Structures are given as C-alpha cells and as structure tokens.
Amino acid sequence: LVWLLVLSLAWLGPALGDEDKEEEVVEEEEKEKKEDEVLSDEIKEEDNVLVLHEHNFARALSEHQLLLVEFYAPWCGHCQQLAPAFAQAATELRNESSPARLGKVDATAQTALATEFGITSYPTLKLFRDGNRTHPLAYTGRLDSQGIVRWMQRRAGPSATLLQDTDTAATFVNSQDLVVVGFFKDLRGEAAQAFFEVAAEMVDMTFGVAEAAELFQAYGLSADTVCLFKKFDERQTNFPVDPSRGLDTAELTRLLRIHSLQLVMEFTNEVQPVPSPATVLQGPWLPCPHPPPPPQTSNQIFGAKIPHHMLLFLNKSSSDQLSLRDGFRAAAGGFRGEVLFVVVDVTGHGADVLPFFGMTPADAPTLRLVKMENNRKYQMEQDNFSDSGIRTFIQAVLDGKVKPHLLSAEPPEDWDARPVKVLVGKTFEQVAFDETKNVFVKFYAPWCPHCQAMAAAWEELAERYKDRKDIVIAEMDSTANELENITIHGFPTLHYFPAGPGRKMVEYKSTRDVETFSKFLDNGGTLPVEPPVSEVREQPPCPGQSPAPAG
C-alpha cells in the first residue's frame, strides 16, 4: 500500500503542478484583459450613462456635441442619492434622440481628470460643448431627472421660441401663466444674444423671441424690450434695454425672478425647496428636520433672493382675519424687489414655522418682518394692519430705526446644577462675557443629529473641567434663543469666549471629541500646532460638508 501511494504521488505530482501553472496563467490573462480594458478608449454605458476615464474621455468629447459629466465619489451619499435621477435623465435624453448625453467619472480613481477640472467636492457636474475641454460650463439646474433634462434641452436646442406673427405670438403669450418674450430689432445683436443666455439658464420659465416690426407695434413697443406676460397682478411688465449699457444678464435674471412672483405670496406645501447642484436651498425661516447645506433653492419664495420678507400670520378660517389681506396687499406694491409679502395660515401648512418665531396659533393675527441676510426678526410694538401702518413699519426697519425682536426661553432654575450650564438669550451675556471665566458654548438644535452625536462628548468634557473655577462648559438651544450680535448659521456651532476685558469670541472648527476639546481649552482657546503628517491626501468633501466636521 505504501508503495502504491508513492507511485500515485509520483504520477499525480506533475499534473497537479500543471494545474497550478494553468491557474496562474488564467489569472495573469484576466489581469491583462482588465488592464487592456482600462487603457482602451472604448466607451461603456451603465443605465445609458457613459462610463468615462482618462483613456476614453477625449473620444467621448469628440463624439458628443453636448456632454454633461458627473464627477463623483463612490462613498459620497449625495452621489448615491443622485444616481437614479441621473440615470433616468440619461435614458430620457437618449430616447428622444437628443444630441445631449450624460457621463460619469469616478474622481477618486481618475485623479488626473479630477485635477484637470478642479474637482473639490462631490458630486460636481460640468457641461462640455463641441469637444471643448478647456472651458466646461458648471451645471446650475436642479438635481432631479426633470431638472437635468430641461437644463440639457435648453442647451441642445433654441432657448427661446421664434414668434413670427401676431397669431403665433398671442397663442404663445396665452399658453401659460407666465412667459417671457424678448423683442429685438436684430436677433444677432449683443442684446439678443444676452437674452438667449438668460433663457438657457432659467429653465423654469418659457421664453420667446420676436423680431418682426408688426409685433413691436402690436405690443406697443418701439425699441428693444424684454416683456414678462402674466395671468395675475399686472398682465405685462416691460424691461427696456438700455441702448448705452446693453442687456445685463444678471440684472435681467433678477428682475424676472422678482416680477414673476405674485405681489403677495401664500406659504403652502407647494413652495418647498427643490434640490440644486452641490447644495440644497432652504429658506432661513423655513424649518426642516435636518439643516441642509447653505441655501440655494429654486422654490419661488426663497429662490428670488429678496432681502426682506414681510409675513402676515392669520387664521384663514376666520373671515375677520382674512379681511386683513387687503391692507397687506395695498402696502406691498411700493416694496417690490426689496420686501416679499407672504401670508402664512397658522392652521394650515404655516403651523410648522410658528416655533421658529416663538409663536402659537393663538398669536394670530400678527405681523413679522425677517431680514434674510442675518435672519433677524422684527415685530411691531402694537400690530397695525392698515396699509399705511405696515408701510411705516417696514420703512423704519429698512432705515435701521427698529431693533430686532429676539427670542429667549426662561432660564431654568437649575441652569448651573449640572456640569454643562444651560444658557438662554436673557442670561447669555452675563455668563459668556464674565471677565473671570473662559466660557466654551455649544449652540445646538434639539432635532440636530450632529448635536445628538456629540452630546456625550460635551457632557464628558464638562465633567472633566467641573472643578476648574476659570472654565465654564455651557450650551444654548438656538431654536428657542437668539442673540443680537451673534448669528448661528448651522448646528452645532461652538464658540469660545476667553476671560479678560473686551467681548472676544473664537469659533471652534476642529474635531469634535473630548481630547481635542481639552487640548483647545488647555492651550487658551487655540489648538497646539501638530507636526505635519507626510503623504496624507485629504479626500474632497461632499457638498455642504467641510473637511473639518463643522456640522
């Protein structure tokens, strides 16, 4: 038996060795095949989205007149959320035989492309036109399939419909609630070209263009003019083109945004924000379950970027309160573009915003003015709902004659019983600006997940320093308390107020853990300089997320 076993091993040994060699050959061939695929300029597709890399990017540009490319990171949550909408948009454009195509680049793997096009956040979308890779256009549309399709369609075809006679013009003007028509003596002139640029960008509006003399006459025009036609408020608003200055695209965009709004808006569930590229837009006085990245909404109320909002809070089930809209509307005309007038029903969708103002439905009817730049709120000493009273109040705020109305909760009786001291608006200054104390304050929102995640670390930090007479660890609920000279833009925000004369303040922007907090405190409100770490390549952040966890 032993002898037979020896013979068997002798016979099978070479065969087993050959199998190992064959497996090695197969693995090597597969590796070479993958390398050849990467090096090839062949363009593969996933869900009608072109999969691009360094070796096929030039070919893609040469083969597609309009190519919108998403630079993404596989780990990026925003990119993962965008993927289905991006694929759907790619399919719609391909099905309609559009010259516009969509592609994607894994910027974490294709670092040369990421560097060439300055990719610093994900997702970043860029439009390449006519094979030009030196001046791609930044995507400015909404990040949903419909927004992407409409944005690409405007760039694939004419951005404005040519109106050739009075019948087609009348049909076009009456086709929708709001349309824009540019009347130009020369459609090849600079003013007309600027108009086409605006039309290509404002994909949520419908644009037409006219050159015929009979159309100038039909609409009472004698010179180049952009007209906004509406089925509400004033029916036609004209924006004449200045012969010396020409047509400024930014100014025209601003005017169209402002005048496309109703004179008095109503806050409903239809004015919710729509995702936009790289960031999401949210109105400062519009609450949300989680604070989004810095705003850029395309919804009507917040997208117009009007610097002040005048709000009338009322109960629409009350006929007496409904009648207050008349004086409110009468006051609105003189402030168009400077102040946006909004009616908020406290028993409807508007009930969600009441806590932001420290109000309940029982407080209606009442008025508030919000300065959008710093989110300051202003309140009349005694509500006056007449048009003259509203105009006088608004003008006084605009002239800086009215102090903001600041929210403050009542200080809890045991505010200093725990290691973490509880501050409110009324008590903030006497604690934070105590010249004998170094005060480290967390400004938070109760619903904020970032705040919840660091709560334990903040408690541990306070426990560590509870016996230090010169250090105070505190927190303030910024949804219920406001400060005159400190504006909180995101949660959590951490500020350090050092001891000594003067009202100094240092914002903490580093890692949120106990050890780093301790180094910051022990070093007098700054972090000690760490020795540089070589060969560490920082990953670009997702939109709205800073490299340091600022929340």
Automatic annotation (TrEMBL):
Asked if the record carries the keyword Manganese, the reply is no
A molecular function GO annotation = protein disulfide isomerase activity
Pfam families in the record:
Thioredoxin, Thioredoxin_6
Residue stretches of biased makeup (Pro residues): 540-551
Which Gene Ontology biological process is one annotated for this entry? Answer: protein folding
Q: Indicate the secretion signal residues.
A: 1-17
Q: Could you tell me the keywords of this UniProt record?
A: Chaperone, Disulfide bond, Endoplasmic reticulum, Isomerase, Redox-active center, Repeat, Signal
Which parts of this chain are annotated as the region Disordered? 19-39, 521-551
Give the enzyme class: isomerase
Asked whether the keyword Electron transport is assigned, the reply is no
Subcellular localization, as worded in the UniProt entry: Endoplasmic reticulum lumen
Query: What are the annotated GO cellular component locations?
Result: endoplasmic reticulum lumen
Q: What is its EC number?
A: 5.3.4.1
Q: Which domain of life is it from?
A: Eukaryota
**Catalytic activity field:** Catalyzes the rearrangement of -S-S- bonds in proteins
Major place of residence: endoplasmic reticulum
Residues covered by the Thioredoxin domain = 7-157, 397-526
Could you tell me where the Acidic residues compositional bias lies?
Answer: 19-30
Record-linked InterPro entries: Thioredoxin-like_sf, Thioredoxin_CS, Thioredoxin_domain
* Family label: Belongs to the protein disulfide isomerase family.
What this protein is called in its record is protein disulfide-isomerase
The protein's organism comes out as Pteruthius melanotis
Its gene name is: Pdia2
